[in-house]
Amino acid sequence: MSTVWITGGGSGIGKALALSFASDGWNVVISGRNQQRLQEVCNLSTKIRSVICDITNQDEVEQSQSEIGAIELAVLNAGDYRPGPTLDCSTNEHRNIFEVNYFGTLNCIHAVLPEMKKQGGRLVVVGSLAGYIGLPNASAYGPSKAALISLCESLRAELQDSLVTLQLINPGFVKSTLTDRNNFNMPNLISAEQAAIEIRRGLQGDRFEIAFPGPFVRRMKLIQMIPYRLYFYVARKLRDRNDKRR
Description:
This protein is of the alpha/beta class. The chain has helices at residues 12-23, 35-42, 58-68, 91-119, 142-158, 192-202, 214-225, 228-245, and strands at 3-7, 27-32, 48-52, 73-76, 121-126, 164-171, 209-212.
C-alpha cells in the first residue's frame, strides 16, 4: 500500500489531505510540532499515524524520515504566517517565517529527494498565490512563498529527466487557524476540504502548478502582468477599502 508523508498535518490543508488520502486506503504519516493536534487527526482514522517533527531542525527531519521509511508521495505543507505592516513585524519574525516556510521545506526536500531519485516518487510543495507579487501587509509571508516558487521552478528543471515528479501547490485564501489571523476581507475564501479536493485532482496529472481557486488565480495572474504604477494604484484602493471595514 502506498505511503504519503504530510508535513503540517495537524490542521488546515494538511489535516484535510490526510483524511482524504486515508479514506482512499493510503498509509498516511502526518508530522508537526503540536502532538495534541496530530493525535486528534490520528483518532479519526486507523490509516493515519503521526511523527513529531520540527522541520526547521534538519536533524529532526532526517530522523523522522528514517522513522517513516519509504514513501511514494511527500506533501510539504507545513508553514507559518504573520500578517501586518513591515515595521510591525520584527526582523526576527521575518526570519522565523523564512525558517519554517522556506528553509524548513528545503530540509524536507533534502531528506526525501535522494531516495526518490533512486526509486521514483512524487514531491509536492505547498506555496501560495501570495508569492506571485508583493501584497500589502504580507511582507513577512509573501517573500517566503515567492522564494519557494523560485526554488520549485529551479528544481523542476533539474528533475525533468528523473524518476521524480515535482509539483507546486499555490492556494489562495483557505480557511484555517492561520488565515483566522487576518482582519481584512479574503476574496474567494475556501475551506480546507475544498482545497484538498483541488489538490487531489491536480495530483492525478503531472502539471507543474496546481493553483486555485480559479477566479482568484486569474485575478492574481492579471495583476502580475500590469505595470507597477497601475498595480500600486489598485493596491492603495484595496488597502483603503479594507481600512474602512475594520
